[in-house]
């Protein structure tokens, strides 16, 4: 299983709950799985993005990918147009409204509790399958020190674990 960002948290939980379904894990830039850090708080990157109100626009859907990209030319017009199409879907708008209404009260605390649970299980027994972590040296939303802390905890109890930094 491969999980990027929040997906790294999800696949780690899945491997712990159902190791019979998992042969190996590849965790990619998962600050959501990494231990909470006062130096790199979980949502700081996203909290620092400009907030856009109103219907989605080309400019508003560019905000996050532009902030993530090493070079803005990597964020193509075709990619932005597809993001805009997705952002205009009724289901997307419903999900966005729900996150605005309940995210800070329900979703964020839930993710935090699950992170602590999964991290505790990793620290206690490790992950039950060979695990590769891939981390970007310059990932703005998942700073490298978080990846190093996460790998240290995984490697302590997971015999077949590797970290590759790009």
Description:
With 166 residues, this protein is an alpha/beta fold. Helices cover 53% and strands 10% of the residues. It is built from six helices and four strands; from the N terminus they run βαβααααβαβ. It has a four-stranded parallel sheet, covered by helices on one side. Helix 1 (6-17) packs across helix 5 and helix 5 packs across helix 6. It starts with a strand and ends with a strand. The model has no long low-confidence stretch (mean pLDDT 93).
Total strands: 4
**What are the secondary-structure elements, in order, as H or E?**
EHEHHHHEHE
Count the DSSP helices.
6
Q: How much is the average pLDDT? A: 93
- Intertermini distance: 20 Å
Strand order of the largest sheet: 1-2-3-4
Q: Give the helix proportion (percent range).
A: 40-55%
Shape: globular
Strand % is 5-15%
Instruction: Please identify the structural class as seen in this structure.
Output: alpha/beta
- Radius of gyration (Å): 17 Å
Low-confidence stretches: none
How can the largest sheet be summarized? 4 strands, parallel
């Amino acid at each position: 299983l491969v999980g990027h960002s929040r997906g790294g948290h999800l696949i780690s939980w899945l491997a712990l709950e159902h190791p019979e379904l998992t042969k190996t894990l590849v965790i990619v830039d998962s600050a959501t799985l990494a231990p909470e850090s006062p130096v790199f708080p979980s949502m700081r990157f996203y909290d620092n993005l400009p907030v856009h109100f109103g219907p989605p626009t080309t400019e508003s859907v560019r905000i996050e990918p532009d902030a993530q990209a090493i070079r803005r030319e990597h964020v193509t017009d075709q990619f932005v147009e597809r993001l805009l199409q997705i952002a205009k879907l009724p289901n997307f708008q419903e999900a966005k409204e729900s996150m605005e209404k309940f995210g800070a009260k329900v979703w964020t605390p839930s993710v935090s509790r699950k992170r602590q649970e999964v991290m505790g299980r990793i620290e206690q027994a490790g992950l039950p399958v060979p695990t590769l972590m891939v981390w970007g040296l310059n990932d703005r939303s998942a700073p490298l020190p978080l990846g190093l802390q996460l790998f240290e905890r995984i490697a302590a109890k997971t015999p077949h674990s590797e970290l590759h930094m790009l």
